[in-house]
Amino acid sequence: MPNNTVIMWFRQDLRLSDNPALLKAIELGSVLPVFILDEGNDWPLGEASRWWLHHSLSALNESLHGNLWILKGDAAELLPQFIKEHCASHIFWNRCYEPSIISRDSLIKDQLTADGVTASSQNGSLIWEPWENLKQDGTPYKIFTPFYKYAIANNPPAAPNQAANINFDTVTCLQDKNRLDSLNLLPDINWHEQFASHWQPGEQGARQRLQDFTENGLADYRDGRDYPAKRSVSMLSPHLHFGEVSPREAASMVKQAGDIDSNEEQAAHFVRELAWREFSYYSLYHFPHICQQNMKPQFDRFPWINDQTKLRLWQQGQTGFPLVDAGMRELWQTGTMHNRVRMVVGSFLVKNLMIHWLEGARWFWDCLVDADLANNSCSWQWVAGSGADAAPYFRIFNPVTQSLKFDPKGSYIRKYVPELNELSDKVIHDPSSAKTQELEKAGVILGKHYPRAIVDLKESRARALDAYKSLRDQP
């Protein structure tokens, strides 16, 4: 093996397995692994993401036998000096796709190339590059289904690379052992401490989560994933975001499990959901403004309501609609929220309350351990009706009927809204419409033990539809 030093710049790929950039680095010399906390972008890390990153870096450093170098600051300024100090000949990294990072990485690559350093980037985060799977005229798809059909037919997911040998030669890290703590990633308030009982950040945690899903969740995935109390979901999104497992490896392992257990249809549906993640990255790449602006410009004229009081009640899970409140409390307590419930709470905010989807996107960004700019932006625009392949604005998720259908016994509600535990399976979905006698029998007084509904669903739905109609009627 050559004796030259090769830098592996870890970013959103905090793993050793199926890591294309790392494999390239291993082939060329002694690997100097480095992570740089560079928050010079439009969406600095939210608090929940900072908690996850701290523990994920700790796990990666352990996998690297304590040899992960950690820096903080502007990567464009730090990398050239770091490379010079270590006399490195090459640097490898896996690509990120956020607009500001794409621009920065391009400048870094040009600068390093001019300095005589070989800088190479790989795809370690996606099944398909965003510039693949275009329409015949070379333009990007705006509808998911044709994008998915074309991608599966013409570019089926490639097999993952073989795992890297964990005993590859690394450059000894000479930094202080407390270097991770110097990043100050852990939030000042201790609300995040309860996350530890729900998550294990890091590559090992990702593998355990994936194995648990294939053994316990896959068989009922397609239908069961709509029921929040069932948890027939993978819970892989934060691991995918931080690159602790690659989407190709996840797709491959689930497909293998599906073939063995005769769950091919379930496995195919999981791959389809991975493709939705890809479509979000694809959309952000081709339409980079969507993380801040409506993809459909007519929504720029929508009469959003700036109601900070109702926004705060929504954030706190105090809306008086148990399914909405359960979802918002799950988010605060665990750093995640069931996907079906995400759609319900999103619809409630932008349609029943008519509060701008960006307010919801910002709150989720701060509270989600899987906060991902592409998925967060596209999902909120989908709910709002303003994005690619969005749900029609007139599709308004009724939190009561959704609760009755997908949480019929109130199991999910009871877990996160325990003050309603004694209500019957029928009443628990809409306490504000229940008779006072029924509530008192269960020890519930509205306005004291649980809030009254902050809006009338029928009236707020009509208001939203009138607003949308006025928008369409405008020239």
Topology:
Layout (H helix, E strand, L loop, with lengths): L4 E6 L9 H9 L1 E8 L9 H17 L5 E4 L2 H11 L2 E7 L4 H16 L3 E5 L21 H11 L48 H14 L4 H4 L12 H5 L5 H14 L3 H23 L21 H9 L5 H13 L4 H14 L4 H11 L5 H12 L14 H8 L4 H6 L19 H6 L15 H17 L2
Parallel strand pairs: 1-2, 1-4, 2-3, 4-5
Helix pairs in contact: 3-4, 6-9, 9-10, 10-15, 12-13, 13-15, 14-15
Provide a compact summary of the structure.
It is built from 19 helices and 5 strands. It has 475 residues and is an alpha/beta fold. It has 3 domains: 121 residues, HUPs (Rossmann fold, 3-Layer(aba) Sandwich), CATH 3.40.50; 118 residues, Serine Threonine Protein Phosphatase 5, Tetratricopeptide repeat; 177 residues, DNA Cyclobutane Dipyrimidine Photolyase, subunit A, domain 3 (Orthogonal Bundle), CATH 1.10.579.
